[in-house]
Write a structure and sequence with these properties.
Length: 659
């Protein structure tokens, strides 16, 4: 370690001109004064309780020299530098105490509090979250579910619907062949139409009625009517619909009136919403649906024993109802998100020529657009573990909270996607500057397409961390591509393998993935991994305990981000080595198929890695040769050469020949 430098980034290790000396009990004052005088040292302070003395280092001498001299004296019990102590970072996020997976007194977690004293990440370290998207922006819902002016059922004005040009059979079933072509907005997702109602003065029986018509894939896509009496924090499903029985995707449902009883909610305020949840990707399992179908709502009415409390013919426009929107997760508000500085926002052009129009913050390979928002909740939870805004007196903490997230959406609202989408997401992340790719996803089938993509990432210096899978069997792909990916399994609170976690020869390391079926730490909550995300729609926010190797993987990616923030020159193999060599060995001694090399240890991994070395040379232009001490000036016949070296805690000898 370079003298005076701490493993804590930018911090001194000890006082530069002081040494602590403890003299042996029988040493008299005259002998002490004689020793100090012989070394030109001066006593500065004396501890009343510890019987040690703080000695000033004279000019021209170093701390190391005096420690060596005093340690050799028969009068001295010990001599050492006057080291600095630093407060250990414990985030002030109020739910941090529930994040046992970061740090805990019993098993240690992954030792994040020690790690944060060394590194918290760097905005220049970019982690691509190749997943269901991330709740990174506020954005109005897409137009394919909205109040629109199609002349449904012969009416004029507005009606609420969803549908795409690809789902032509569904469109015709609802609107008939004579209506204009459907707009072709793209695939559907978790959409809702919502309104608040005041039932504080309602009396008798309260009934909410509506007409509906839909053609959606049977037992795959669902249309629901839901109520909330706590301002959207939780929802109760009152009715659920899907296509009737029949061939392929089932038979569409013609115009039907239905109602729900809200009498039990009298005396309060409620939210009522219609919600459609589709499988989004292609929906062509039945041979007919190649998108998500369509739903139509009309003639909504609320009444009690006193009469009609509310009526909407759905022809008055969108202002009466709240239509689906995206929101940035509140606890990601201070997180750094990747920005494509070569792209001009919303100009409809591919300014940087990378093949993607207006990709300011990433790309959505499911819907082929530049708004890679999360409509599943998975990717947002994953991103929080990596880089949640931390020490902001809100919510929970993230591991590399000063690093940058690049959202890349390859999975849809149902949490699935194709290998094509995943591969394209990998290529995009690599080509746009990600240093780390987190893939909390996987499939059971090997694929040349997928292997080529991860090989491309590895060959371009990108570290890939992938989930081993949750089927208690062999490692999924792409994690199983040993040469390119670091496969991450999951452990529980007490550091045993989670019962779902995949294992085998391809497993490299494990990280906390949790088990929501137990409470081994006795804190009254399930032992899942805690992060902020949403539930049914992208505005239903809360803090959720999830489990899985999907949750374990971002722990490893977050630590990898800390390593690369500390030393951006590390290769994927060096990151792997740091994680594996410092992991806490679990199971049989050495690497094994259940735990790989063991449980990641963030603090140990950071201690294993030295910061990048920066060397600068300056000269007056004349030729000189010699061995220069870093920071020293040599004058050889008028020549001046200066060598400055920032080695951090690394030991480094520099021999410089300056021309």
């Amino acid at each position: 370690m370079t003298p005076g430098r701490s493993a804590r980034s930018g911090s001194a290790l000890y006082v530069p001109d002081e040494v602590i000396v403890k003299f042996k009990p029988w040493t008299d004052r005259r002998s002490v004064e004689g020793l100090l005088r012989a070394e030109a040292a001066v006593q500065r302070r004396e501890s009343k309780g510890g019987r040690f003395t703080v000695v000033g280092v004279p000019p021209g001498r170093t701390v190391a020299e005096l420690v060596e001299v005093f340690s050799a004296s028969p009068l001295v019990e010990y001599a050492e530098p006057n080291f600095y102590a630093y407060a250990t970072l414990t985030p002030n996020d109020p739910r941090y105490n529930l994040q046992w997976h970061f740090d805990n007194a019993t098993y240690g977690g992954i030792h994040m509090e020690q790690a944060w004293d060394v590194e918290t990440g760097d905005a220049g370290t970019v982690v691509a979250v190749v997943d269901t998207g991330v709740a990174y922006e506020d954005l109005a819902g897409p137009g394919f579910w909205h109040l629109d002016t199609y002349n449904a059922y012969g009416g004029s004005g507005y009606s609420w619907w969803c549908g795409t040009s690809a789902a032509l059979s569904s469109w015709i079933a609802l609107y008939g062949a004579s209506v204009p072509d459907p707009p072709g907005y793209g695939n559907g997702w978790k959409q809702y139409l919502q309104r608040a109602f005041d039932l504080t003065s309602a009396t008798g029986t309260v009934t909410f009625s509506y007409y509906y018509k839909f053609d959606i894939e049977r037992n795959v896509d669902y249309f629901r009517v839901e109520v909330s009496d706590d301002d959207g924090a939780s929802w109760t499903t009152l009715k659920q619909y899907t296509n009737r029985g029949g061939s392929f995707g089932g038979s569409p449902v013609d115009l039907t009136q239905d109602s729900v009883d809200l009498t039990g909610y009298i005396g309060g305020n409620i939210l009522i919403r219609f919600r459609f949840n589709s499988d989004e990707i292609y929906s062509d399992e039945d041979g007919i649906f190649d998108s998500d179908g369509a739903v139509y709502i009309d003639e909504v009415q609320l009444e009690d024993d006193g009469g009609i409390l509310f009526y909407d013919d759905m022809e008055s426009g969108a202002g009466v109802w709240e239509v689906t929107r995206y929101e940035q997760a509140g606890d990601l508000s201070g997180t750094s998100f990747w920005t494509n500085l070569s792209e001009i926002p919303d100009d409809g052009l591919d300014n940087d020529g990378n093949g993607y129009i207006d990709d300011i913050n990433g790309w959505d390979f499911v819907n082929s657009d530049a708004h890679q928002n999360d409509d599943d909740s998975h990717g947002t939870h994953v991103s929080g573990t990596i880089a949640q805004t931390t020490n902001n007196s809100a919510g929970v903490a993230g591991i590399a909270f000063d690093a940058t997230i690049m959202p890349v959406k390859v999975l849809g609202a149902d949490g699935s996607g194709t290998y094509e989408m995943v591969a394209d997401g990998i290529y995009y992340a690599v080509d746009n500057g990600a240093q780390i790719i987190n893939m909390s996803l996987g499939g059971s089938a090997a694929s040349a397409t997928l292997e080529d993509a991860v090989a491309y990432a590895y060959s371009n210096g990108v570290t890939i961390l992938a989930a081993s899978g949750n089927s208690n069997s062999s490692v999924d792909y792409p994690a199983a591509y040993d040469a390119y990916c670091i496969a991450v399994g999951a452990t529980e609170y007490d550091e045993i393998r989670a019962p779902y976690s995949n294992f085998g020869t391809s497993l490299d390391i494990v990280a906390p993935g949790g088990n929501t079926g137990v409470d081994k730490n006795g804190d009254g909550f399930a032992d899942g991994v805690l992060q902020e995300t949403f539930s049914d729609t992208p505005v239903d926010w809360n803090y959720w305990f999830f489990q899985g190797t999907s949750m374990a993987t971002p722990h490893a990616s977050g630590v990898a981000a800390l390593l690369l923030s500390r030393n951006p020159t590390l290769t994927p193999d060096q990151v792997r080595d740091a994680l594996e060599s410092t992991a806490e060995d679990l199971g049989p001694a050495g690497r094994d198929d259940e735990y790989g090399y063991g449980l990641i240890d963030a603090a140990a991994a950071l201690a294993y890695v030295s910061p990048a070395v920066s060397i600068s040379l300056s000269t007056d232009g004349s030729v000189g040769f010699g061995l220069l001490v870093p920071g020293a000036v040599a004058d050889n016949s008028g020549d001046v050469e200066v060598v400055s070296v920032d080695t951090g805690p690394a030991d480094l000898n520099v021999k410089s020949t300056v021309f």
